[in-house]
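$ ./design --mode recover --in tokens.txt
reading tokens...
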């Protein structure tokens, strides 16, 4: 049985609002205008996002999303695994599903801007660091990373 399935923005939004980004001041949108290695492009806000949920015992215990960006890059965004389920490779599996979605949409690479605390999941999925760690709106330590197809 596949535990990962596509979900809706309405299903992922409460997890992002309450668990992943509880103190975020900017509005949480389905897409992000961020670009790999910095800057913003509104093109990224007009592509179709895909949302993933990892289900156990009828509940979503992990989520992630992805969407195409300018330059044929695919953005992985919003990875979260509930605390009681961490260390079970759920994050890695959600990232692999997102990587595969980007590949199916013809992306040249997949990238993200994870917190340092989740770096092990990204590393286990094959991502490599593309920048130094820095503070952001939602964390004291984020860095750009990428997965090349």
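writing sequence...
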């Amino acid at each position: 049985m596949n535990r990962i399935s596509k979900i809706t923005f309405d299903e992922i939004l409460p997890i992002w609002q309450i668990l992943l980004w509880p103190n975020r001041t900017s509005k949480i949108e389905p897409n992000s205008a961020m670009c790999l290695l910095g800057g913003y492009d509104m093109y990224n806000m007009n592509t179709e996002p895909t949302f993933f949920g990892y289900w156990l015992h009828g509940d979503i215990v992990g989520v992630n999303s992805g969407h195409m960006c300018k330059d044929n890059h695919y953005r992985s965004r919003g990875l979260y695994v509930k605390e009681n389920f961490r260390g079970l490779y759920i994050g890695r599996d959600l990232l692999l599903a997102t990587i595969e979605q980007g590949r199916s949409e013809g992306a040249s690479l997949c990238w993200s801007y994870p917190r340092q605390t989740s770096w092990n999941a990204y590393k286990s999925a094959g991502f490599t660091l593309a920048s130094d760690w820095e503070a952001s709106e939602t964390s004291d330590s984020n860095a750009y990373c990428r997965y090349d197809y």
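exit 0
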